[in-house]
Design goal:
Strand content: 15-25%
Number of strands: 15
Distance between the termini: 14 Å
Shape: globular
Order of helices and strands: EEEHEHEHEEEHEEEHEHEHEEH
CATH superfamily of the largest domain: HAD superfamily/HAD-like
CATH architecture of the largest domain: 3-Layer(aba) Sandwich
Strand order of the largest sheet: 5-4-1-13-14-15
Low-confidence stretches: none
Mean pLDDT: 93
Helix content: 25-40%
CATH class of the largest domain: Alpha Beta
Largest sheet: 6 strands, parallel
Number of helices: 8
Length: about 260
Amino acid sequence: MNEITGVKGLLIDLEGVLYSDNNLTPGSIEVIKELKKNSLKLRFLTNTTTAPRKIIFNKLYDFGFDIEEKEIFTPIIATKNYLRENRVKRIALITNIEIIEEFNDYEITQKNPEAVIMGDIYKNFKWDILDRIFKLVYLQNAALIALHQNKYSMRDGEVSLDLGPFVKAIEYSSGKKSILMGKPEKNFFDLAVKDLNINNENILMIGDDISSDIEGSINANLKAIQVKTGKFQEKDLKYPTQPNYRLNSITELPKLLGF
C-alpha cells in the first residue's frame, strides 16, 4: 500500500477504532502518541449521546490517551451551536440523564417546547416515551432534533439497535423530517473540519462504520479510512460507497502515513 502524503489533520472515530465495548484496541494509545509526535492536528469524533464531553474525556484519560478535552467533537456540541444560532430556548430532552447538565442554559420542558432533542436512551425506548415524542412533534409542532441516526451499535459484544430506528419511527408517524446533528450528517463533518482549521484535502477520517463514518465523511469531501475493528463486517466490502483505504486496525495508520 502506497504511503499517503500531505496529511495535516485527522478525524478519528472513538468507539470501534480506539476501543470497543470498553476494551482498548491494542496499540491505539501508542498510535495517538505517534500521531501527535508528528505534529498532526486531531479531532476525536463520536456519535455518543449518553455522556457529556468531560465524561468521554475522563474515559479516554483513564485508558491512558494523551489528549485534550477540546479535541473531542460530539453531536451535543453541534446541537448547542444550532440552538444558539436559531435562538431556541425551550427544549424537551429525550436523552440520557447525564447530559442534561450540557443544556443548563435552556428551559427544559414537556409543555410546548420549540424543539425535541432525541439521544440514545438504550432500553428505555418504550412505547410511552415514543408516543410522547410523537405528540410533541405532531400535535405541538416542535422541531425534531436527532443527535445522530446510527442504525445499530455494538452492545455487550453484539450488534444491537441504536438511535436511528427510533428517530425514523417519529419521522414516519409525524410526517416531519428530523434535524440531524451527528454522523453521517455533512454539517457535522464540516463543523469538525472548521474546528481543525485545515483544508479538506489535507484531512483523513478514520472510522469503523461504513455508513456513518465512511460514507458520511466522503460525502463531506474527505478521504476516508475504514478499520476492520468495531462495526466492520465482511458485507462492508460490497457497500456502494467504499473507503479510500482499509486497514486491519488503527495500528497500521502510522506506516500508511510514512512515520
